[in-house]
Amino acid sequence: MTVRLLLADDHPVVRAGLRAVLDTEPDFTVVAEAATAEAAVERAAAGGVDVVLMDLQFGPGGGGMHGSEATAAITARGAAAPRVLVLTTYDTDADILAAVEAGASGYLLKDAPPEELAAAVRTAAAGRSALAPAVAHRLMHRMRTPGQALTRRELEVLELVGEGLSNQQISKRLFLSQATVKSHLVHVFAKLGVESRTAAVAEARNRRLLRP
């Protein structure tokens, strides 16, 4: 069976490199490319795609739809939707959790060797989970230490703190009350062993929970 692929990445050089690697596999065919997350969602909805290779960050400054949002939009179609294999440079807890919760079938880093990429594509196409070893390790660590791990919502709040937003701004962005935002931060401080917003962001980045 031929696996039909959609390459979603905003860098033409990256897409060309991926196409060159994937075209060497006799059972793969790249049927389309997308330079934006929005275009990837539109093309995936048009049909004729089995697996979408999805980057997480699109466009200068991270504007527009995020790869995780596009993944959620694609997988929302249920059984009729293609599988989404995230292919990115980011291996933080925040990125991994967002992608997995959005319905990604796999999560691979861009420095993966060609044979690992090909195996992940086949695994995703078959409806199974394909995780890079480093990603699987981080998820297993979270499962083994649930009391210490930040929840997805706590990571979202902390990401916005890192962007310089106030509690009021965060509450509006995430549609939460300010009391709830403050409660999340209290839990974050306790889990990270810190006493300030700045220290929390620094510690989270040091632990690769958030992007630098």
The Cα radius of gyration reads: 18 Å
**Beta-strand residue fraction:** 5-15%
**First CA to last CA: what distance?**
41 Å
Average of per-residue pLDDT values: 93
Uncertain parts = none
**Class derived from helix and strand content:** alpha/beta
Order of helices and strands: EHEHEHEHEHEHHHHH
- The percent range for helix content is 40-55%
Sheet of most strands = 6 strands, parallel
Arrangement of strands in the largest sheet: 2-1-3-4-5-6
Count of individual helical segments: 10
Q: Count every beta strand, where a strand is a DSSP E run of 2 or more residues.
A: 6
Shape call? elongated
Walk me through the structure.
The protein is of the alpha/beta class. It is 50% helix and 14% strand. The protein is built from ten helices and six strands, in the order βαβαβαβαβαβααααα. The protein has helices at 12-22, 37-45, 67-75, 93-101, 114-125, 133-144, 152-162, 167-174, 178-192, 197-206, and strands at 3-8, 28-34, 51-54, 83-88, 106-109, 130-131. Strands 2-1-3-4-5-6 form a six-stranded parallel β-sheet, with helices on both faces. It is elongated, with a radius of gyration of 18 Å. The N and C termini lie far apart (41 Å).
